[in-house]
Design a protein that fits this description.
207 residues, seven-stranded mixed sheet
């Protein structure tokens, strides 16, 4: 049974989707044992506490550099035997040291079909604003591994979502979460915990 740490920054809807999937028995061979927030006001902390999950806050604003922030996170993770880190709406960019120590053991959920609408500066509603401005008819979400390139790690799962004519950022964001993110993130986590993801270069194979 792998211990899972979930990193959060805001409301924690993806964390809730993971908790709900775990309660339904859909995350095989893994358990969420720890939630780390980048700020003390993240409502995700309340969701974790209600589920009886241990939490900690490592506030990004208190550290001068990405490297110092990395070290602070690694200090908090030490001794917890974490087998997988899941970034569920975590808005701080991780540095090389943490990524290196947890190589191919960090999964992120991104609200677009990578490689479209991703990379530096594409997060939260900014993604959906760009989607709507582009005029594309289909968007979606991507669960992927994290490497040193923002949104550049190997893709695990993707799901497409239609863009509808009268959408605004809020409507589209909710549809992408409900129809894609909340579905594929728990699936990707379970596949990892079951040892069913094989990585070949920057591609994955589901065993």
């Amino acid at each position: 049974m792998l211990n899972i740490a979930v990193f959060v920054s805001g409301g924690g809807t993806n964390l809730q989707a993971l908790i709900d999937a775990q309660d339904r028995g859909e995350i095989k061979n893994g358990k969420i044992t720890f939630v780390l927030a980048s700020n003390e006001n993240a409502y995700a902390l309340e969701r974790a506490k209600k589920a009886g999950i241990e939490t900690a806050v490592v506030n990004r604003k208190q550290y001068d550099s990405k490297e110092a922030y990395d070290r602070a996170i690694l200090d908090v993770l030490e001794g917890r035997d974490i087998g997988l880190i899941v970034l569920a709406g975590f808005l701080s960019i991780l540095g090389e040291e943490l990524i290196s120590q947890y190589r191919n053991r960090i999964i992120n959920i991104h609200p677009s079909l990578i490689p479209l609408f991703c990379g530096d500066g594409f997060y939260g509603k900014r993604v959906h604003t760009a989607v709507l401005e582009s005029g594309v008819k289909v968007t979606g979400a991507t669960a992927h591994f994290v490497n040193e390139i923002t949104d550049g790690g190997a893709i695990i799962l993707q799901k497409a979502v239609d863009v509808e004519q009268n959408d605004n950022e809020d409507i589209l964001q909710y549809r992408v979460m409900r129809q894609a993110e909340w579905e594929i993130l728990p699936k990707a986590v379970s596949l990892f915990c079951e040892g069913r993801i094989k990585i070949n270069g920057n591609k994955t194979e589901i065993i």
